[in-house]
Amino acid sequence: MSKLRVAVLGAKGRIGSEAVRAVEAAEDMVLVAALDRDDKIETLTETDAQVAIDLTHPDAVLDNLAYTTTHGIHAVVGTTGWTDERIAQVQDWLAKSPATGILIAPNFSIGAVLTMQFAQQAARFFESVEVIELHHPNKADAPSGTAHRTAQLIAAAREKAGCAPQPDATSTALDGARGADVDGVPVHSVRLRGLLAHQEVLLGGEGETLTIRHDSLHHKSFMPGILLGVRRVVDTPGLTFGLENFLDLGN
Ligand SMILES: NC(=O)C1=CN([C@@H]2O[C@H](COP(=O)(O)OP(=O)(O)OC[C@H]3O[C@@H](n4cnc5c(N)ncnc54)[C@H](O)[C@@H]3O)[C@@H](O)[C@H]2O)C=CC1
Ligand SMILES: O=C(O)C1=N[C@H](C(=O)O)C[C@H](O)C1
What we know:
The chain is an alpha/beta fold.
């Protein structure tokens, strides 16, 4: 069987450099390009890349996807900063290149994906839910893509179940003290040297709390998810949002 021809964008970055090593070590893949900021994206077509893994920056990812989609190159995207408008733009490009697949995953680690699933499952049983994400201080965006997605999933589950808005009697607060509001769910961002990527979902009800916590302690935690995404995206045309769609989670 021929090997998948894979390129990494953001190859000199924290997660991109780990992805380069993971692709090189995968027996069913060959790394055809490892590009960073000053390299020309045309290298993707020159090297006949089948899949591009984008681990760059929210300011760069859309231009990269415009190129890959137009040229029929599948993409596995870990870069964050997704809004409804940006996703709609990607859908427009895909409509003109219907055989192309794009996977956008807010988080490639299995533990983080399960955290989102468990939080979504638990959300309707508790009066209050808040999300705290904790990352290294070099991170460009806040809140994290994972926390944003977690809060959206929680809010959707609560709305579907007809939950009342969360109680909060705060009448005076310093700006930011109650976090960012994502669809009614407060999301708090901590940036601290020594951390990598961590998240807690706090759920509270009468006389009890439930805390769901996940810790990524090394960038290796994201690699099995990225490699799975590469293997699956070539046979999955259109946009897939979330690695859970490629995992058999039984729901
Ligand atoms: N979905 C997931 O599981 C994960 C996602 N991420 C996300 O991946 C992104 C990168 O994170 P880090 O590696 O920590 O950042 P980083 O700053 O260490 O690396 C980003 C790299 O992309 C390069 N770059 C910028 N623009 C580029 C362009 N147009 N073409 C090619 N390369 C370009 C930069 O020079 C840099 O080397 C962030 O959005 C982060 O949130 C990070 C870890 C896991
Ligand atoms: O920047 C990071 O490091 C990470 N970014 C992703 C996010 O914003 O959720 C995934 C993980 O948290 C690591």
